[in-house]
């Protein structure tokens, strides 16, 4: 008995050793991280998109080299996304396409960075297909914004899905604290999302980078000057914002406006916080000592910031089969007219190859919908090796059925989902004369045996050749 026990213990110890070895790969992971919610995971895209994080980081390095100010934009985007109905990328939904959106509510007046997110989405989907959610891209972009401007690097749990619905204007106003709020208001508002005072002070440290418009703080200057504000600081701000409604902007952290560091807390100790919501953290007795501790110890700030960010990044996330993976971060898939085109574009691993097949048969394709259908089919077959299993189970060939009656099923879902979507679209838009399964069957055959003419009828029942890889 001793032997197996010893062996088990050895395994346990060595695996502990290994996991602790990996967990220090990022500097701040040694700190206790908050529990991750079920459905999210640290390795979510390990198989389906192993490069997602390196693609995003590489691209953002490029973007920030041009304009480091964008880092702040992306960090704030994630904050707004998560605070209003959860980190579900609802903040990205384009109002003009599908009704009122978070972008149109007043606190979002100045959100920026949407294009960067959509560009990242395009890069990631080009590499992996439509598997990574916009919400995860936003969370990773926020992390990289922190890191690439000098802050801590940390792991982000992944697996968020994109929301289907907009946050109303009211929900947005209710969930985002105002810069005019005092610390006790902010503390109780954030407590409803399970943030403690340390989290609140750490998260506010996001204001160590970025800019603000005059309107967010001029009521501290006019008509009477806020007495908790340093005189010289106030005088300079009056220069930037000569009137209450000036449209100018200024930096949030005067000491190091583009660097993610702990200087924001030094600002607060010098009464140079820009918003009431910032400065009052140093006035309030529950948060004052936390501000001081971060001002004197950047390592401590980084550690607490990471904990709070990982918490924030998991607020009311959608996981599993809820929500969707948007093909365009600005619109729900259901409202996305070029959706078919983008499915085609993104599902393709070997884009050029698939399109050359499409081109070959273009002349025989009766209308744009069957073209889309065909294209999607070819493309998803290339990816999922499901080429000649047919569209619907009843249409599967006897040969396929007899060859692998059960084996067929595991192959079906990815291909089938895309195809049934196409079938639905075709039925809705053009109900009269398109027999989708017939056409797909036909093209199955053409794909397996190119020499068979397209006019030889449906190939269903005569699959041959091996799956295309
Ligand atoms: C605690 C409550 C918070 C309030 C009241 C607040 C308020 C604001 C306001 C009013 C602005 C300026 C908008 C403008 O006038 O252009 C701003 C900017 C910003 N906020 Fe917050 N915020 C809060 C929390 C956070 C959190 C938790 C983060 C991230 C961790 C964050 C990150 C940022 C960043 C990076 C900017 C600069 C954006 C840019 O340069 O485009 N804020 N915030
Ligand atoms: C904070 O603001 C709220 C709402 O405006 C107010 O009721 C409260 O008295 C303020 N607290 C402090 C300590 O100033
Ligand atoms: C905007 O702020 C700058 C200083 O940052 C100042 O020089 C300029 O005059 C301001 N512009 C307006 C229109 O007030
Ligand atoms: C700063 O904080 C870190 C992290 O909590 C801690 O290990 C370190 O001892 C602190 N440094 C000082 C000088 O207090
Ligand atoms: C995404 O959707 C928006 C809004 O409909 C549109 O303006 C934009 O061109 C779309 N982007 C792509 C890449 O299709
Ligand atoms: C930049 C931007 O989108 N600004 C809009 C934000 O929302 C207000 C309405 O609340 C619009 O007036 C702004 O044009």
TrEMBL record:
Keyword annotations: Disulfide bond, Heme, Iron, Metal-binding, Oxidoreductase, Peroxidase, Signal
Domain Plant heme peroxidase family profile: 39-333
Pfam families in the record: peroxidase
Required cofactor(s): heme b; Ca(2+)
Record field: catalytic activity: 2 a phenolic donor + H2O2 = 2 a phenolic radical donor + 2 H2O
Superkingdom, natural source: Eukaryota
Keyword Oxidoreductase appears in the UniProt entry: yes
UniProt xrefs under InterPro entries: Haem_peroxidase, Haem_peroxidase_sf, Peroxidase_pln, Peroxidases_AS, Peroxidases_heam-ligand_BS, Secretory_peroxidase
E.C. number(s) listed in UniProt: 1.11.1.7
Signal peptide positions (record): 1-27
PANTHER family: PEROXIDASE 16-RELATED, PTHR31517
Family: Belongs to the peroxidase family. Ascorbate peroxidase subfamily.
Reported function: Removal of H(2)O(2), oxidation of toxic reductants, biosynthesis and degradation of lignin, suberization, auxin catabolism, response to environmental stresses such as wounding, pathogen attack and oxidative stress. These functions might be dependent on each isozyme/isoform in each plant tissue.
Designated name of the protein: peroxidase
Organism: Hibiscus sabdariffa (roselle)
């Amino acid at each position: 008995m001793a032997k197996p026990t010893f062996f088990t213990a050895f395994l346990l110890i060595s695996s502990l050793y290994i996991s602790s070895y990996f967990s220090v790969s990022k500097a701040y992971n040694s700190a206790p991280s908050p529990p991750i919610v079920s459905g999210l995971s640290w390795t979510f895209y390990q198989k389906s998109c192993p490069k997602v994080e390196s693609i995003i980081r590489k691209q953002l390095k490029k973007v920030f080299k041009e304009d480091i100010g964008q880092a702040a934009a992306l960090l704030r985007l994630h904050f707004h996304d998560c605070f209003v109905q959860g980190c579900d990328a609802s903040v990205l939904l384009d109002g003009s396409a599908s009704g009122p959106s978070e972008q149109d509510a007043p606190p979002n007046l100045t959100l920026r960075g949407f294009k960067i997110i959509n560009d990242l989405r395009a890069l990631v989907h080009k590499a992996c297909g439509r598997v990574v959610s916009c919400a995860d891209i936003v969370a990773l972009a926020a992390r990289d914004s922190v890191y690439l401007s000098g802050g801590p690097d940390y792991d982000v749990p992944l697996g968020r899905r994109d929301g289907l619905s907009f946050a109303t204007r009211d929900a947005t106003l209710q969930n985002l604290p105002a810069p005019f709020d005092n610390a006790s208001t902010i503390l109780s508002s954030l407590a409803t999302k399970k943030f403690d005072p340390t989290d609140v002070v750490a998260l506010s440290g996001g204001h160590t980078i970025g800019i603000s418009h005059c309107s967010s703080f001029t009521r501290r200057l006019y008509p009477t000057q806020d007495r908790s504000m340093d005189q010289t600081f106030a005088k300079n701000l009056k220069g930037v914002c000569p009137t209450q409604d000036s449209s100018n902007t200024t930096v949030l952290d005067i000491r190091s406006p583009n660097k993610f560091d702990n200087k924001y807390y030094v600002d607060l100790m010098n009464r140079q916080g820009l918003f009431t919501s910032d400065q009052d953290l140093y006035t309030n007795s529950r948060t004052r000592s936390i501000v001081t501790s971060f001002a004197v110890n950047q390592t401590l700030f980084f550690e607490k910031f990471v904990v709070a960010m990982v918490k924030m990044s998991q607020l009311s996330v959608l996981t599993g089969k809820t929500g969707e993976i948007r093909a365009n971060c600005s619109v729900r898939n259901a409202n996305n007219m070029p959706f078919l085109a983008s499915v085609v574009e993104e599902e393709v691993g070997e884009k050029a190859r698939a399109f050359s097949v499409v081109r070959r048969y273009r002349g025989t394709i009766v209308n744009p919908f069957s073209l889309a259908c065909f294209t999607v089919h070819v493309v998803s077959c290339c990816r999922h090796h499901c080429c000649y299993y047919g569209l619907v189970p009843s249409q599967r060939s006897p040969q396929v059925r007899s060859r692998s009656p059960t084996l067929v099923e595991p192959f079906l879902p990815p291909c089938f989902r895309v195809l049934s979507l196409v079938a639905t679209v075709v039925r809705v838009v053009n109900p009269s004369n398109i027999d989708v399964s017939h056409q797909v069957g036909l093209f199955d055959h053409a794909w397996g045996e190119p020499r068979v003419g397209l006019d030889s009828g449906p190939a269903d029942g005569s699959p041959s050749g091996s799956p295309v890889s």
